[in-house]
Structure to design on (290 residues):
């Protein structure tokens, strides 16, 4: 859980807290560091970057990464209620760019960088009209997020080239096997953000053989296969947590989309193999049990 919210004195009454902690900034926020240094807290980093940041601060900790079920998230998952993923999404003969990101924001800042990503897609699609965008999220901003339809308008994205999930299915939850089919249909997952503590969708996509465009900071670089793409960013000060994020640079995202397009999309064996080290059974036996 995000520990900067854990300010109650009642936590001090607990004898031994095992705290599985995301570090989703470039630097550790002071409130997070104070929690990690509590005598009754055993910190558990959930990504290599988080472990490195804790080590740099001299904070004793354990390490257990997130995990995924590679029996479900695997290449060539194509069926959604009797339809192929391309039929379900309307993506036949299109270059499918996917996003899987919660539409939750804090005021003017959106950690998932929807503004930069959608603007980059708009610029990319002007050169490649066969590209389409699937955004697996709630688009109206009902959970303190943004109105993504207004953002798409502002970026001049062709509405016929954007698909959102069925709102009823999204509200009640997609079956993991159906989400796996959607990942497998994508030509690339577009996932740059201001900072990730792990980024579970990036690993789910890779397990399905789909390469990822991600941020070259926080947790992401060490969690992408060598044939994925990293984008650059510039520092962004998070005044609420007194720590640094980075804003993805739009031309860098466009360049990564171009590289993905040139590659032709499709299945990546390297990505699928890379993700297997994060299989739930592997992580359970190698990390949680010890």
């Amino acid at each position: 859980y995000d520990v900067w919210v854990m300010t109650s004195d009642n936590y001090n009454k607990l004898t031994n807290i095992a705290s599985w902690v995301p570090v989703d900034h470039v630097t550790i926020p002071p409130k997070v560091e104070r929690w990690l240094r509590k005598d009754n807290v055993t910190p558990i980093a959930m990504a290599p970057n988080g472990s490195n940041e804790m080590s740099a601060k001299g904070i004793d900790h354990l390490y257990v990464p997130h995990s995924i079920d590679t029996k479900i998230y695997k290449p060539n998952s194509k069926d959604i209620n009797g339809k192929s993923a391309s039929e379900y999404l309307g993506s036949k003969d299109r270059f499918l760019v996917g996003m899987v990101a919660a539409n939750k924001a804090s005021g003017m800042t959106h950690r998932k960088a929807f503004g930069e990503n959608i603007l980059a897609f708009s610029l990319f699609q002007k050169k490649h009209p066969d590209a389409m965008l699937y955004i697996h999220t709630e688009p109206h901003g009902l959970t303190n997020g943004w109105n993504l339809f207004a953002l798409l308008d502002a970026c001049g994205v062709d509405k016929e080239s954007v698909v959102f999930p069925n709102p009823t299915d999204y509200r009640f939850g997609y079956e993991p096997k159906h989400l796996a089919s959607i990942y497998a249909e994508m030509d690339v997952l577009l996932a740059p953000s201001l900072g990730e503590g792990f980024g579970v969708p990036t690993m789910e996509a890779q397990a399905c053989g789909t390469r990822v465009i991600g941020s070259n900071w926080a947790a992401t670089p060490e969690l992408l296969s060598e044939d994925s793409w990293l984008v650059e960013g510039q520092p962004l000060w998070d005044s609420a947590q007194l720590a640094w994020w980075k804003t993805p640079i739009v031309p860098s995202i466009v360049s990564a989309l171009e590289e993905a397009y040139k590659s032709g999309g499709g299945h990546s064996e390297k990505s699928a193999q890379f993700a297997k080290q994060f299989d739930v059974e592997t992580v359970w036996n190698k990390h949680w049990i010890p």
